[in-house]
Amino acid sequence: METALLKFTSVLHDHERDREEAVVEGDRAVLRDKIYDVLLPIVLVNLWPADGEPLDVELEKVRVKAERAELDEEHGVVKLFGDVTATGEDFQILTDSVVYRVTDRSLTSNDPVRLQKDTTDAEGNRKPALVVMGRGMAVDLRMGHMTILEEVEARLHGVSEDFLAAELEEPDGAEDTRDVVITSKGRLLYEHLAHKVSFADHVHVLSGERELGCDQLTILLGESEGSDRLEVSDIVATGGVELNYLHQVARGQKLEWHNVTQTGVLTGEDGRPASMTTPEFEMAGGRLTFYRVNDRFHAEGPGTLRWKATGPEPAAEAPAQVEAWGVGPLDLSSGQPVRISWQSSMTYHVAERIASFQGQVVAHQQSSSLACEQLALTLEPDGGQIQKVEAGGGVCMHDETGEQGREVLCDRLVWDARKDRIELIAAEGQTVSVAVGPHTITSRDVVFNNADRVLECPVAGRLAVRSSPRPEGLGAEAAEAEPIEVVWQDRMSFHQQAAPQASFSGQVAASRGNHVMKGDRLRVEFNADMEPLTIVATGNAVLDVLAELAETGRALPVGRASEGAAPGGEAAAAPGTASVEGERWHLDSQELVIEIPPELIRSQTGGSLSVLRGEATTGAIACEGALLLDFAQNVARFSGNVNAEVSGTLLRSDDLKLDFDDARNLRHIWAEGNVRFAQQREGAWQLECDSAEAIFAAQSELREVIARSSVEVRDERRVLTSQLMQLFLGKVEGEPQPVLQRAVWQEDVLISYVQDERIEGAGDRLEWTRDDDTYVLTGDPQASLRRGALMVLNDKILVDRPSGRLSLPPGARPVRTVVPENFD
Questions:
Q1: Cα dihedral angle (794, 800, 802, 805), rounded to 10 degrees?
Q2: Same domain flag for 128 and 26
Q3: What is the pTM of this model?
Q4: Same domain? 77 vs 110
Q5: CB 397 within 8 A of CB 369
């Protein structure tokens, strides 16, 4: 049986609460089996406040309209079909069918659904703020919850640009709002009273240039005071989170975005770190925080970063040059990535392109590494190249590239990559240490101008250059290059071009083998293997050549004279009659030059050579012209007003040459030009000639002295002149040094005694021997000797050296005596 009713109205009650829940109206209704079939129904659902409190949206009713409905009054169920529309004060739901149940005050549907939440502008006009589409719906009118079951697409209109992460500045006149589109395969839960929307299963968010993907997403909504637009206050994304923005990708397990503080926190889970990828680098850490207000992000706790230069291709490889001192924390031209790890934190300022790292920071690039406590990288504006590097706190830089490794220790490092300039600074009371292969530099401040291949130390420091091991087969000599160490008090500059050169100033001291050179300024020139070629000391230049006397028994070129009879008289000594062992040779000049090889020391500004034993000077040679010591040829030369002083004996000449063996034992001495030899004690004798030489036996034992051309020997009692003089020395028991045994004068020999009765002799040859202490004067055809008013002529005349008394040898032909005609 059917009953038709016009202008149908039915009131549905909640009998437990004894209140009216909904009113069903229709133009016509037909009752069939206790079910009303209602045409063009309207269902007015009362929204009762929870616990007596008013609802936030202040809705009294929800109006549901459809083409038809089925009403089950007994069970309080209304099924609506065909263009179903549910309208509240600020929302509207569209679907094909819906079921309303009084008992749980719910609306459900399995059909496609469209939900629209509106806002009202200042003029009272409504406009959409949130539009959600999907399949299937469940609305709990008691709790104010709405669930879209699957295939959800939600569009948030006019959302503030602050939604999600930081972005670059918008161009002038750009909109400050945007639409946000969110899709998910799973359900959407909208909690009306809490202003919260949750999405599940393959959630994807698109907001302008930002994209967010995750497993679950929760958004807290609100409206700004005095604004009609929808605000996103908080976002929580969990499970497989991926945020894309302007070629930046952040990945993690959970992202929390707080709009009030404009802060986002991305974390990992189960040992998997959160990560951030930009065109410049890839970063990973346990907790990444994004700050939109000051445009930066921060990693708390241990993490890693990978950066790779993306600038222009490096220039063609330059011709090979000497492997330089220059060091760099990174090789920007290699195209190889840089990997950085830290233990405390990392912060990246996006606008300034500055990345700061804290706590046991280590940066790796191939075989190079940089370790420190704090590190800051400043990138170029495009992020493709590094502009500046600053490292502090126990900085250690290690590089194994090239033939020689490099290691740097300092407290602070500053690298200007544009200029390729690196400054290394030491902590208070400490020094910087730079080691390149076997070479080292220590100073409080070291600067590398790599572009110009110049190393500078503006303060005191120390340089040590040691030869690298040579390949086998080059011979023993090639492997014995002496190391050089230099200490300075002012500054140092090392130019590393094809011909490396180092300059030092301020009380400079350089040591190499047994050589120690000092000066106000010093310059060292090197070859391509960083072996010293030339050392130049200028300004108060000093060179000490040390001798290992205890092991070698070396003797130095000049020494203490021995006592004994000599042509000049009692206890006299010949020029350089002997040498004594000394500890070092000491040279000083305004400029000294060492050439390595051939182990040659020279000066063009004059100077002096002293032989020292401890602090005592046992011999000295000074000149005003050129000075040369050639240890390869074992020769020393002096020119220009040469003065040699040996234990109170003075030798002067225009030029002086010393010849010695490898142990610095003298073999020969030559004096040329205006030679004068004098003992400085009272009554001592003097020797003058045009040239002289001394010949030595083993261990610098003087054996012979030869004087040539205009030879004159004089003391207070006698004068001897000739064109040639020879002195022969030998060992005498009880004497530590060789003593004079025999002397010979030849050519134009003259001898005169200066006393009351003048004695003068002339001949071709004069001999003296130590045994009889007698002069033997001979001539061809005859020699002459004048004593007082008498002159004796004979082929051989004997003269007692101390007294001047003459005699003839046994068997000599008769003496011829002559009285001069002008004798008074």
A1: -70
A2: no
A3: 0.71
A4: no
A5: yes
